Amino acid sequence: MAEDDVKIVMFCCNWCSYGGADTAGTSRMQYPPNIRVIRVMCSGRIEPQFVLKAFREGADGVIVAGCHHGDCHYDAGNYKLDRRMRLVYKLAEDMGIGKERIYHDWISASEGEKFADTVKMMVTRIKELGSAPLKEQLDAEA
Amino acid sequence: MVEKAKIGTMWLGGCSGCHLSIADFHESLLDVMELADFEFSPVLMDTKYDEVPELDVLIVEGGIRNEENRELAEELREKANFVISYGTCAAYGGIPGLGNLHTVEELEKEAYINSPSTPNEEGIIPNEDVPALESRVRPLNEAIDVDLVVPGCPPRSDVVAEAVIALLKGETVELPTTNLCDVCPREKPPEGLAMDVIKRQFEIGKPEDDLCLIPQGLICMGPATISLCGAECPSIAIQCRGCYGPTSKVMDQGAKMISAIASDYGIEEDKTIDPEQVADQLDDIVGTFYTYTLPAALIPAKMQKGGK
Ligand code: FES
Protein backbone atom coordinates (compact mmCIF):
# COMPACT_ATOMS: atom_id res chain seq x y z
CA MET A 1 0.00 0.00 0.00
CA ALA A 2 1.01 3.62 -0.43
CA GLU A 3 2.78 5.10 2.55
CA ASP A 4 0.28 7.96 2.72
CA ASP A 5 -2.55 5.51 3.38
CA VAL A 6 -0.94 3.87 6.38
CA LYS A 7 -2.98 4.66 9.48
CA ILE A 8 -1.46 3.95 12.85
CA VAL A 9 -2.96 4.70 16.23
CA MET A 10 -0.38 5.25 18.95
CA PHE A 11 -1.15 5.30 22.64
CA CYS A 12 1.38 7.20 24.74
CA CYS A 13 1.53 7.55 28.48
CA ASN A 14 1.55 11.11 29.70
CA TRP A 15 4.73 11.00 31.74
CA CYS A 16 7.26 9.38 29.46
CA SER A 17 6.26 8.48 25.92
CA TYR A 18 4.21 11.59 25.28
CA GLY A 19 7.21 13.52 26.53
CA GLY A 20 9.26 11.49 24.08
CA ALA A 21 7.00 12.70 21.28
CA ASP A 22 7.54 16.25 22.50
CA THR A 23 11.28 15.79 22.52
CA ALA A 24 11.18 14.44 18.99
CA GLY A 25 9.17 17.50 18.00
CA THR A 26 11.20 20.18 19.76
CA SER A 27 14.43 18.75 18.42
CA ARG A 28 12.92 18.73 14.92
CA MET A 29 13.39 15.05 14.27
CA GLN A 30 11.76 13.78 11.11
CA TYR A 31 9.28 10.94 11.20
CA PRO A 32 6.36 9.95 8.99
CA PRO A 33 3.02 11.64 9.68
CA ASN A 34 0.98 8.43 9.69
CA ILE A 35 0.40 8.23 13.42
CA ARG A 36 -2.46 9.53 15.51
CA VAL A 37 -1.25 9.89 19.07
CA ILE A 38 -3.68 9.33 21.89
CA ARG A 39 -2.43 10.42 25.28
CA VAL A 40 -3.39 8.42 28.35
CA MET A 41 -2.19 9.03 31.87
CA CYS A 42 -0.39 5.71 32.16
CA SER A 43 0.16 2.78 29.85
CA GLY A 44 -1.52 0.73 32.56
CA ARG A 45 -4.75 2.43 31.54
CA ILE A 46 -4.62 0.93 28.09
CA GLU A 47 -7.01 -1.94 27.75
CA PRO A 48 -7.12 -4.56 25.02
CA GLN A 49 -10.49 -3.03 24.13
CA PHE A 50 -8.74 0.17 23.01
CA VAL A 51 -6.42 -1.71 20.70
CA LEU A 52 -9.25 -3.73 19.18
CA LYS A 53 -11.42 -0.65 18.80
CA ALA A 54 -8.65 1.05 16.85
CA PHE A 55 -8.66 -1.82 14.36
CA ARG A 56 -12.44 -1.84 14.24
CA GLU A 57 -12.42 1.82 13.26
CA GLY A 58 -9.95 1.28 10.49
CA ALA A 59 -6.43 1.48 11.91
CA ASP A 60 -3.82 -0.58 10.09
CA GLY A 61 -1.55 -0.82 13.10
CA VAL A 62 -1.38 0.09 16.76
CA ILE A 63 1.61 1.17 18.85
CA VAL A 64 1.46 1.28 22.61
CA ALA A 65 4.21 3.12 24.44
CA GLY A 66 4.87 3.59 28.13
CA CYS A 67 7.64 4.41 30.57
CA HIS A 68 10.59 2.06 30.93
CA HIS A 69 10.23 -0.62 33.57
CA GLY A 70 10.81 0.94 36.94
CA ASP A 71 9.97 4.44 35.70
CA CYS A 72 6.16 4.28 35.68
CA HIS A 73 4.75 7.34 37.42
CA TYR A 74 2.22 5.07 39.11
CA ASP A 75 4.80 2.45 40.01
CA ALA A 76 3.77 -0.59 38.01
CA GLY A 77 1.17 0.22 35.34
CA ASN A 78 3.55 -0.69 32.56
CA TYR A 79 4.22 -4.15 33.99
CA LYS A 80 0.52 -4.89 33.79
CA LEU A 81 0.34 -3.54 30.28
CA ASP A 82 3.27 -5.75 29.34
CA ARG A 83 1.39 -8.88 30.41
CA ARG A 84 -1.81 -7.71 28.76
CA MET A 85 -0.14 -7.08 25.44
CA ARG A 86 1.21 -10.64 25.33
CA LEU A 87 -2.38 -11.85 25.38
CA VAL A 88 -3.43 -9.27 22.82
CA TYR A 89 -0.73 -10.53 20.42
CA LYS A 90 -2.09 -14.03 20.79
CA LEU A 91 -5.64 -12.86 20.26
CA ALA A 92 -4.63 -10.87 17.18
CA GLU A 93 -3.07 -14.01 15.72
CA ASP A 94 -6.18 -16.07 16.43
CA MET A 95 -8.46 -13.47 14.87
CA GLY A 96 -6.41 -13.17 11.72
CA ILE A 97 -5.31 -9.58 12.35
CA GLY A 98 -1.71 -10.67 12.76
CA LYS A 99 0.46 -9.78 15.72
CA GLU A 100 2.90 -7.84 13.54
CA ARG A 101 0.35 -5.05 13.35
CA ILE A 102 0.67 -4.38 17.05
CA TYR A 103 3.77 -3.23 18.84
CA HIS A 104 4.51 -2.14 22.36
CA ASP A 105 7.67 -0.60 23.69
CA TRP A 106 9.05 1.70 26.34
CA ILE A 107 10.00 5.25 25.39
CA SER A 108 11.19 7.75 27.98
CA ALA A 109 10.71 11.51 27.77
CA SER A 110 14.30 12.00 26.68
CA GLU A 111 14.18 9.38 23.94
CA GLY A 112 12.92 11.53 21.08
CA GLU A 113 15.01 9.53 18.71
CA LYS A 114 13.58 6.22 19.86
CA PHE A 115 10.11 7.69 19.37
CA ALA A 116 10.87 8.71 15.80
CA ASP A 117 12.55 5.38 15.06
CA THR A 118 9.63 3.40 16.46
CA VAL A 119 7.20 5.28 14.24
CA LYS A 120 9.42 4.84 11.20
CA MET A 121 9.82 1.14 11.89
CA MET A 122 6.06 0.58 12.22
CA VAL A 123 5.16 2.60 9.15
CA THR A 124 7.57 0.53 7.06
CA ARG A 125 6.27 -2.67 8.55
CA ILE A 126 2.61 -1.82 7.92
CA LYS A 127 3.36 -0.58 4.43
CA GLU A 128 4.66 -4.03 3.64
CA LEU A 129 1.76 -5.83 5.31
CA GLY A 130 -0.85 -3.72 3.54
CA SER A 131 -4.03 -2.31 5.00
CA ALA A 132 -5.69 -4.13 7.88
CA PRO A 133 -8.40 -6.45 6.66
CA LEU A 134 -10.95 -5.87 9.40
CA LYS A 135 -12.74 -2.72 8.35
CA GLU A 136 -12.57 -3.70 4.71
CA GLN A 137 -14.08 -7.10 5.33
CA LEU A 138 -16.84 -5.77 7.59
CA ASP A 139 -17.68 -2.96 5.20
CA ALA A 140 -17.80 -5.35 2.26
CA GLU A 141 -20.25 -7.58 4.09
CA ALA A 142 -22.56 -4.86 5.30
CA MET B 1 -62.98 -7.89 29.98
CA VAL B 2 -59.94 -6.06 28.72
CA GLU B 3 -58.42 -7.42 25.61
CA LYS B 4 -55.41 -9.60 26.18
CA ALA B 5 -52.06 -8.78 24.69
CA LYS B 6 -50.71 -11.04 21.98
CA ILE B 7 -47.35 -12.65 22.52
CA GLY B 8 -45.33 -14.37 19.84
CA THR B 9 -42.12 -16.34 20.20
CA MET B 10 -39.68 -17.28 17.50
CA TRP B 11 -36.52 -19.35 17.19
CA LEU B 12 -33.75 -18.47 14.81
CA GLY B 13 -30.08 -19.49 15.08
CA GLY B 14 -30.35 -20.96 18.57
CA CYS B 15 -30.85 -24.32 20.23
CA SER B 16 -34.40 -23.86 21.60
CA GLY B 17 -33.01 -23.94 25.13
CA CYS B 18 -34.31 -20.43 25.67
CA HIS B 19 -37.79 -21.63 24.80
CA LEU B 20 -37.49 -24.25 27.50
CA SER B 21 -36.92 -21.39 29.85
CA ILE B 22 -40.32 -20.03 28.80
CA ALA B 23 -41.87 -23.45 29.18
CA ASP B 24 -40.39 -23.41 32.67
CA PHE B 25 -42.32 -20.30 33.75
CA HIS B 26 -44.21 -22.43 36.26
CA GLU B 27 -46.82 -20.56 38.25
CA SER B 28 -45.84 -17.27 36.70
CA LEU B 29 -47.27 -18.67 33.50
CA LEU B 30 -50.68 -18.09 35.06
CA ASP B 31 -49.81 -14.45 35.66
CA VAL B 32 -48.65 -14.09 32.09
CA MET B 33 -51.73 -15.83 30.69
CA GLU B 34 -53.94 -13.49 32.63
CA LEU B 35 -52.52 -10.59 30.69
CA ALA B 36 -51.70 -12.18 27.38
CA ASP B 37 -52.10 -15.11 25.03
CA PHE B 38 -49.46 -16.90 23.02
CA GLU B 39 -50.65 -16.33 19.48
CA PHE B 40 -47.64 -17.42 17.51
CA SER B 41 -44.98 -19.87 18.62
CA PRO B 42 -43.48 -22.55 16.40
CA VAL B 43 -42.33 -24.37 19.52
CA LEU B 44 -45.74 -24.63 21.12
CA MET B 45 -48.14 -24.78 18.22
CA ASP B 46 -48.57 -25.26 14.52
CA THR B 47 -47.72 -21.99 12.80
CA LYS B 48 -47.64 -20.76 9.25
CA TYR B 49 -45.07 -18.20 8.33
CA ASP B 50 -47.43 -16.58 5.85
CA GLU B 51 -50.15 -16.20 8.46
CA VAL B 52 -48.40 -14.36 11.23
CA PRO B 53 -50.86 -12.38 13.36
CA GLU B 54 -50.21 -8.84 14.56
CA LEU B 55 -48.29 -9.17 17.83
CA ASP B 56 -47.84 -6.91 20.81
CA VAL B 57 -44.70 -8.59 22.07
CA LEU B 58 -42.38 -10.81 20.11
CA ILE B 59 -39.73 -12.85 21.89
CA VAL B 60 -36.92 -13.91 19.56
CA GLU B 61 -34.40 -16.58 20.42
CA GLY B 62 -31.21 -17.11 18.43
CA GLY B 63 -28.98 -15.02 16.26
CA ILE B 64 -28.73 -14.68 12.49
CA ARG B 65 -26.86 -17.66 11.08
CA ASN B 66 -28.47 -18.15 7.68
CA GLU B 67 -30.59 -16.35 5.12
CA GLU B 68 -33.80 -17.82 6.46
CA ASN B 69 -33.09 -16.44 9.93
CA ARG B 70 -32.75 -12.96 8.50
CA GLU B 71 -35.85 -13.19 6.36
CA LEU B 72 -38.01 -14.40 9.23
CA ALA B 73 -36.60 -11.81 11.60
CA GLU B 74 -37.45 -9.03 9.17
CA GLU B 75 -40.92 -10.39 8.47
CA LEU B 76 -41.80 -10.77 12.14
CA ARG B 77 -40.43 -7.36 13.02
CA GLU B 78 -43.11 -5.84 10.80
CA LYS B 79 -45.84 -7.67 12.68
CA ALA B 80 -44.62 -6.92 16.16
CA ASN B 81 -44.93 -3.86 18.28
CA PHE B 82 -42.18 -4.68 20.70
CA VAL B 83 -39.32 -7.09 20.08
CA ILE B 84 -37.32 -8.77 22.81
CA SER B 85 -33.94 -10.09 21.81
CA TYR B 86 -34.08 -13.10 24.03
CA GLY B 87 -31.12 -15.13 25.19
CA THR B 88 -27.42 -14.80 24.54
CA CYS B 89 -27.52 -16.02 20.92
CA ALA B 90 -29.95 -13.29 19.96
CA ALA B 91 -28.15 -10.73 22.07
CA TYR B 92 -24.50 -11.52 21.30
CA GLY B 93 -24.44 -14.45 18.88
CA GLY B 94 -23.81 -17.06 21.55
CA ILE B 95 -21.94 -20.32 21.18
CA PRO B 96 -22.77 -20.74 17.46
CA GLY B 97 -20.80 -17.52 17.10
CA LEU B 98 -17.55 -19.42 17.56
CA GLY B 99 -18.21 -20.56 14.00
CA ASN B 100 -17.01 -17.09 13.06
CA LEU B 101 -13.48 -18.43 13.44
CA HIS B 102 -14.00 -20.34 10.19
CA THR B 103 -15.19 -19.65 6.70
CA VAL B 104 -18.56 -20.92 5.52
CA GLU B 105 -16.79 -23.44 3.29
CA GLU B 106 -14.84 -24.83 6.24
CA LEU B 107 -17.99 -25.13 8.33
CA GLU B 108 -19.95 -26.90 5.62
CA LYS B 109 -17.13 -29.29 4.96
CA GLU B 110 -16.87 -30.11 8.64
CA ALA B 111 -20.60 -30.62 9.03
CA TYR B 112 -21.37 -32.55 5.87
CA ILE B 113 -18.15 -34.31 4.93
CA ASN B 114 -15.64 -34.60 7.77
CA SER B 115 -18.06 -35.35 10.57
CA PRO B 116 -17.72 -39.09 11.30
CA SER B 117 -21.43 -39.52 11.98
CA THR B 118 -22.44 -38.23 8.55
CA PRO B 119 -22.03 -40.86 5.83
CA ASN B 120 -21.61 -38.85 2.66
CA GLU B 121 -19.47 -40.78 0.26
CA GLU B 122 -19.99 -38.52 -2.69
CA GLY B 123 -19.10 -35.54 -0.56
CA ILE B 124 -22.23 -33.61 -1.42
CA ILE B 125 -22.80 -30.30 0.26
CA PRO B 126 -26.53 -29.63 0.16
CA ASN B 127 -27.42 -26.32 -1.43
CA GLU B 128 -31.03 -26.80 -2.44
CA ASP B 129 -33.90 -26.56 0.03
CA VAL B 130 -31.55 -25.59 2.85
CA PRO B 131 -31.03 -21.92 3.53
CA ALA B 132 -27.53 -20.70 2.73
CA LEU B 133 -25.28 -19.74 5.61
CA GLU B 134 -24.37 -16.09 5.89
CA SER B 135 -20.70 -15.15 6.00
CA ARG B 136 -20.81 -15.04 9.80
CA VAL B 137 -23.15 -15.26 12.78
CA ARG B 138 -24.61 -11.93 13.80
CA PRO B 139 -26.57 -10.83 16.82
CA LEU B 140 -30.25 -10.15 16.12
CA ASN B 141 -29.89 -6.40 16.45
CA GLU B 142 -27.65 -6.30 13.40
CA ALA B 143 -30.58 -7.48 11.30
CA ILE B 144 -33.57 -5.73 12.89
CA ASP B 145 -34.29 -3.12 15.57
CA VAL B 146 -34.86 -4.62 18.98
CA ASP B 147 -36.56 -2.92 21.91
CA LEU B 148 -35.21 -4.91 24.81
CA VAL B 149 -32.36 -7.34 25.33
CA VAL B 150 -32.67 -10.12 27.89
CA PRO B 151 -29.47 -12.17 27.73
CA GLY B 152 -28.69 -15.53 29.28
CA CYS B 153 -27.87 -19.04 28.16
CA PRO B 154 -30.67 -19.62 28.77
CA PRO B 155 -32.11 -16.65 30.67
CA ARG B 156 -33.48 -17.68 34.04
CA SER B 157 -37.21 -18.31 33.84
CA ASP B 158 -38.00 -16.00 36.72
CA VAL B 159 -36.03 -13.17 35.10
CA VAL B 160 -37.91 -13.53 31.82
CA ALA B 161 -41.28 -13.96 33.47
CA GLU B 162 -40.69 -10.85 35.51
CA ALA B 163 -39.63 -8.88 32.46
CA VAL B 164 -42.58 -10.03 30.37
CA ILE B 165 -45.10 -9.34 33.12
CA ALA B 166 -43.65 -5.90 33.74
CA LEU B 167 -43.83 -5.14 30.02
CA LEU B 168 -47.42 -6.29 29.75
CA LYS B 169 -48.33 -4.04 32.65
CA GLY B 170 -46.72 -1.17 30.81
CA GLU B 171 -43.79 -0.79 33.16
CA THR B 172 -40.26 -0.27 31.91
CA VAL B 173 -37.76 -3.06 32.31
CA GLU B 174 -34.24 -2.28 33.37
CA LEU B 175 -31.29 -4.62 33.48
CA PRO B 176 -28.74 -4.38 36.29
CA THR B 177 -25.60 -2.40 35.52
CA THR B 178 -23.41 -4.19 38.05
CA ASN B 179 -21.12 -7.14 37.39
CA LEU B 180 -21.35 -10.61 38.76
CA CYS B 181 -18.79 -10.06 41.51
CA ASP B 182 -21.18 -7.55 42.99
CA VAL B 183 -23.71 -10.25 43.80
CA CYS B 184 -21.34 -13.21 44.18
CA PRO B 185 -21.32 -14.66 47.69
CA ARG B 186 -17.65 -15.62 47.51
CA GLU B 187 -15.25 -13.50 49.44
CA LYS B 188 -12.71 -11.37 47.64
CA PRO B 189 -9.33 -11.22 49.34
CA PRO B 190 -9.05 -7.81 51.06
CA GLU B 191 -5.65 -7.11 49.51
CA GLY B 192 -7.17 -7.43 46.02
CA LEU B 193 -7.30 -10.17 43.44
CA ALA B 194 -4.08 -11.95 42.62
CA MET B 195 -3.52 -15.20 40.80
CA ASP B 196 -0.25 -17.04 40.34
CA VAL B 197 -1.36 -19.94 38.21
CA ILE B 198 -4.13 -20.65 35.74
CA LYS B 199 -5.84 -23.98 36.14
CA ARG B 200 -8.84 -25.80 34.81
CA GLN B 201 -11.54 -27.00 37.10
CA PHE B 202 -10.53 -30.66 37.04
CA GLU B 203 -6.97 -29.78 37.95
CA ILE B 204 -7.84 -28.18 41.23
CA GLY B 205 -10.65 -30.47 42.28
CA LYS B 206 -13.03 -28.82 44.65
CA PRO B 207 -12.22 -25.15 45.10
CA GLU B 208 -11.97 -23.75 48.58
CA ASP B 209 -15.31 -22.72 50.01
CA ASP B 210 -16.20 -19.06 50.24
CA LEU B 211 -13.04 -17.74 48.54
CA CYS B 212 -13.19 -15.97 45.18
CA LEU B 213 -12.31 -18.39 42.37
CA ILE B 214 -9.80 -16.17 40.58
CA PRO B 215 -7.08 -16.32 43.28
CA GLN B 216 -7.59 -20.09 43.24
CA GLY B 217 -6.46 -20.23 39.64
CA LEU B 218 -9.77 -20.44 37.80
CA ILE B 219 -10.68 -18.02 35.03
CA CYS B 220 -14.00 -16.75 36.31
CA MET B 221 -15.64 -14.33 33.88
CA GLY B 222 -17.54 -12.62 36.70
CA PRO B 223 -15.68 -9.30 36.54
CA ALA B 224 -16.90 -8.62 32.98
CA THR B 225 -20.31 -10.29 33.19
CA ILE B 226 -23.69 -8.77 33.95
CA SER B 227 -25.19 -9.72 37.31
CA LEU B 228 -28.54 -10.86 35.93
CA CYS B 229 -28.16 -14.52 36.91
CA GLY B 230 -27.43 -13.91 40.57
CA ALA B 231 -24.04 -15.66 40.43
CA GLU B 232 -25.53 -19.13 40.38
CA CYS B 233 -22.43 -20.91 39.11
CA PRO B 234 -19.82 -19.38 41.45
CA SER B 235 -22.07 -20.10 44.41
CA ILE B 236 -21.77 -23.80 43.64
CA ALA B 237 -18.01 -23.62 42.98
CA ILE B 238 -18.10 -23.43 39.20
CA GLN B 239 -16.40 -20.50 37.53
CA CYS B 240 -18.52 -18.10 35.50
CA ARG B 241 -18.10 -18.60 31.77
CA GLY B 242 -19.80 -15.34 30.99
CA CYS B 243 -22.99 -16.73 29.46
CA TYR B 244 -25.09 -13.64 30.26
CA GLY B 245 -22.73 -11.40 28.34
CA PRO B 246 -21.09 -8.15 29.39
CA THR B 247 -22.44 -5.39 31.58
CA SER B 248 -23.64 -2.26 29.81
CA LYS B 249 -20.34 -0.54 30.61
CA VAL B 250 -18.25 -3.12 28.79
CA MET B 251 -17.77 -2.89 25.04
CA ASP B 252 -16.10 -6.23 24.52
CA GLN B 253 -16.48 -8.89 27.18
CA GLY B 254 -13.51 -11.00 26.15
CA ALA B 255 -11.09 -8.09 25.88
CA LYS B 256 -12.20 -6.76 29.25
CA MET B 257 -11.56 -10.12 30.84
CA ILE B 258 -8.17 -10.46 29.15
CA SER B 259 -7.32 -7.15 30.73
CA ALA B 260 -8.46 -8.28 34.16
CA ILE B 261 -6.70 -11.63 34.12
CA ALA B 262 -3.43 -10.26 32.76
CA SER B 263 -3.38 -7.55 35.42
CA ASP B 264 -4.22 -9.88 38.30
CA TYR B 265 -1.81 -12.54 37.20
CA GLY B 266 1.36 -12.41 39.24
CA ILE B 267 0.49 -9.01 40.62
CA GLU B 268 2.37 -9.79 43.79
CA GLU B 269 5.64 -10.12 41.90
CA ASP B 270 4.63 -7.53 39.37
CA LYS B 271 8.14 -6.44 38.57
CA THR B 272 9.93 -9.75 38.45
CA ILE B 273 7.49 -12.11 36.80
CA ASP B 274 8.05 -13.10 33.18
CA PRO B 275 5.35 -11.19 31.28
CA GLU B 276 5.00 -14.02 28.80
CA GLN B 277 4.00 -16.48 31.51
CA VAL B 278 0.30 -15.65 31.59
CA ALA B 279 -0.01 -15.91 27.81
CA ASP B 280 1.82 -19.24 27.90
CA GLN B 281 -0.77 -20.69 30.23
CA LEU B 282 -3.69 -19.82 28.01
CA ASP B 283 -3.89 -21.92 24.89
CA ASP B 284 -7.31 -20.99 23.61
CA ILE B 285 -7.82 -17.27 24.08
CA VAL B 286 -10.93 -16.96 21.94
CA GLY B 287 -12.55 -20.09 23.30
CA THR B 288 -11.89 -19.03 26.86
CA PHE B 289 -12.86 -15.39 26.74
CA TYR B 290 -15.31 -15.20 23.85
CA THR B 291 -17.31 -18.41 24.37
CA TYR B 292 -20.61 -16.54 24.15
CA THR B 293 -19.98 -13.15 22.62
CA LEU B 294 -17.67 -13.43 19.63
CA PRO B 295 -20.18 -12.09 17.05
CA ALA B 296 -20.72 -8.99 19.19
CA ALA B 297 -17.01 -8.44 19.87
CA LEU B 298 -15.01 -5.59 18.40
CA ILE B 299 -13.42 -8.13 16.09
CA PRO B 300 -16.47 -10.28 15.38
CA ALA B 301 -14.97 -12.83 13.03
CA LYS B 302 -11.62 -14.18 11.99
CA MET B 303 -10.13 -12.06 9.24
CA GLN B 304 -9.68 -14.32 6.29
CA LYS B 305 -6.82 -12.79 4.40
CA GLY B 306 -4.39 -13.70 7.16
CA GLY B 307 -3.99 -10.06 8.09
CA LYS B 308 -2.42 -9.33 4.74
S1 FES C 1 3.10 6.53 33.71
FE1 FES C 1 4.18 5.95 31.96
S2 FES C 1 3.71 3.86 32.02
FE2 FES C 1 2.76 4.43 33.84
TrEMBL record, chain A:
Signal peptide: none annotated. It comes from Candidatus Methanobinarius endosymbioticus. Residues 8-130 form the F420-non-reducing hydrogenase iron-sulfur subunit D domain. Its EC number is 1.12.99.-. InterPro entries: MvhD/FlpD (IPR003813). Keywords: 2Fe-2S, Electron transport, Iron, Iron-sulfur, Metal-binding, Oxidoreductase, Transport. The gene is mvhD. It is an enzyme of class 1 (oxidoreductase). Its cofactor is [2Fe-2S] cluster. This is F420-non-reducing hydrogenase iron-sulfur subunit D. GO terms for molecular function: 2 iron, 2 sulfur cluster binding; metal ion binding; oxidoreductase activity. The keyword Transport applies. Belongs to the MvhD/VhuD family. It comes from the Archaea.
TrEMBL record, chain B:
GO terms for molecular function: iron-sulfur cluster binding; oxidoreductase activity. InterPro entries: Hydrogenase_assoc-protein, NADH_UbQ_OxRdtase-like_20kDa, NiFe_Hase_small_N_sf. The keyword Oxidoreductase applies. Residues 15-167 form the NADH:ubiquinone oxidoreductase-like 20kDa subunit domain. It comes from the Archaea. Gene3D superfamilies: NADH:ubiquinone oxidoreductase-like, 20kDa subunit. This is F420-non-reducing hydrogenase subunit G. It comes from Candidatus Methanobinarius endosymbioticus. The gene is mvhG.
